[in-house]
Task: structure prediction
Amino acid sequence: MMKEKSRINHKTLYMLVSVLLCTVAMNLVDGVMQPHYFVKSIIKVCLFLIVPIIYFAVNREDRSELKKLFTPRGSDILKALGLGILLYGFILGGYFLLRNTVDFSGIVGKLTADTGVSADNFVFVALYISFVNSFLEEIFFRGFAFISLKKLTSRRFAYIFSALVFAFYHAAMTVGYFHIGIFALTLFGLFVAGFIFNYLNEKSENIYTSWIVHMFANFAINTVGFILFGIL
Result:
């Protein structure tokens, strides 16, 4: 019994420490190193995939749970599509309501200066963000840092931890783009979004429901990007 408890503690410790380290690392990449977007994407792929792979490679008894994360359910997919469409309209509507109040003009220049994203490559960046990047984040923050973690800790702790690190992960990539009040509101919104994504995945027991909603949120943000870059 003591041996099993020790193994569980080691699993939990690995999850917590690795997720925190990866989140801090990505903030350093975004806020300090500021490499080209392609290089940053490679780093993120390595961190967000290798950490869960190591965990499930070592803990073979948990591999059945890994399979569930990638097993979609039709009814949940349809609900997620409906919610995603509503979210797309909400975010885009918010932009049009605020564009005469909040100055978005500096975002384009900062993106180009910091990461090399421009009108010439934004289509490819938008496709990556919408489909690949969102999937990586759902694997890491929802599949690994919530659903898998919840089996080793309390439900409440897993909810809060996953939502917090998801919001913190976005800190360095959003700081400097908005006034401090908007920045704080953005992080709080991401924290709430993390809770909602966790709830969707807890109900479906896979990552596809939150991934679909996440994609539509990115579709909306990328639509704003197309407008700011003068593509639309």
Notes: The CA atoms of residues 21 and 47 lie 10 Å apart. The mean pLDDT is 88.
